[in-house]
Specification:
The chain is of the alpha/beta class and 329 residues long. The protein is built from 8 helices and 15 strands. The protein has a 7-stranded parallel sheet. Helix 3 (74-88) crosses helix 4 and helix 5 runs parallel beside helix 8 (312-327). It starts with a strand and ends with a helix. 44% of the residues are buried.
Length: 329
């Protein structure tokens, strides 16, 4: 039996990031009869999230406060993680594969000697009981399985890698809540966060965790209106290629690829996207890939599940209109 610790990423409002429940599901499979514990870092209200976490198998939630020190600084988060691992005796730590968590995991590994796998698309135990994570490497050209051989396994899962599942109806409605304050070291606070500027509010889902992503590339020639219209119709996020952001057609926060966001939605729709290697590295783990491009030789067709050879300005409005018609019955 093992204790599996899950980092409970949440917004400042206390709302859980959607993919956290996927981590809880993966943690149950890894616990092998042990318990799943959650780590809530910060003073945000945790009570509303407890019933949801209980229904997903989390037995204990540890809420750790760092006082006036901003826990969003990765050196601080790394110390909180190390303390939580010692406190719980966890042998596995699961977290979402975000830039911040990757840096904190690296610091944790240096401090504890843990084995770390980032951008994992799946995680399980092998016949020897080792934690084994699957991930694609080299711009999606290889799929690897990495067995962690250290006493502590840290696995950062991509959003959408696991389908979240409830536990049975007899499970406790809410996990036990344990709170404590942690005084982090002076070393962890050598950098200070002086200002944060929140992004403009949007009704669209977060790009890194969206179930559906509609992506525009060079073929949009700067006009993302058809991309945005389809994304809004299907409740998806809008993504882009590096060319589109370099041209200033759309913000860099939408860029998908090796130097941008890594996504793994259930449905990826690429319009006017060639499928260059650096872009494929950030989206090839998508569940179903639909490509729309007038060039039948475009590389993205090599990995697409469905392909449409055509002009996005002709195809996308028709698709959007048909979906709207079907939705309205």
């Amino acid at each position: 039996m093992a204790t599996v610790l899950v980092l409970l990423d949440h917004a400042e409002t206390g709302a859980l990031r959607g993919s956290v429940l996927e981590l809880a599901t993966a943690a149950r499979d890894l616990a092998d009869g042990g318990e799943v514990h959650g780590l809530w870092v910060g003073d945000e209200p945790v009570d509303p999230a407890l019933p949801v976490l209980g229904r997903h198998g989390v037995a204990v939630v540890h809420q750790v406060s760092t006082g006036a020190v901003d826990a969003r600084l990765t050196p601080v988060l790394a110390e909180v993680l190390a303390d939580a691992v010692r406190e719980t005796g966890a042998t596995v730590l699961l977290a979402l594969s975000t830039f911040e968590n990757k840096e904190a995991a690296a610091r944790l590994a240096v401090a504890t000697g843990a084995g770390v796998v980032t951008d994992a698309a799946a995680v399980e135990r092998d016949a020897e009981g080792r934690v084994v994570a699957s991930k694609t490497v080299l711009a999606g050209t290889w799929t690897t399985r990495c067995a962690v051989r250290t006493g502590l396994a840290v696995v950062l899962l991509k959003a959408g890698a696991v389908v979240s599942r409830h536990v049975d109806e007899e499970a406790p409605l809410a996990p036990e809540l344990r709170t404590r304050a942690l005084a982090v070291s002076e070393r962890a606070t050598r950098a200070a966060l002086v200002r944060r500027t929140p992004a403009a509010p949007s009704d669209r889902p977060d790009l890194s965790s969206a179930d559906v992503v509609v992506v525009g590339g060079r073929g949009t020639e700067g006009d993302f209106a058809p991309i945005e219209a389809l994304a809004d119709e299907v409740g998806g996020a809008v993504g882009s290629t590096r060319v589109a952001t370099d041209e200033g057609w759309i913000g860099h926060e939408t860029q998908i690829g090796q130097t941008g966001v890594t996504v793994s939605p259930r449905l990826y729709i690429g319009a006017g996207v060639s499928g260059a290697v650096h872009h494929r590295g950030g989206m090839q783990a998508s569940g179903t890939i639909v490509a729309i491009n007038p060039d039948p030789e475009a590389p993205i067709f090599e990995i697409a599940d469905y392909g449409i050879v055509g002009d996005l300005f002709t195809v996308l409005p028709q698709v959007t209109e048909e979906l709207r018609r079907l939705r309205q019955g």
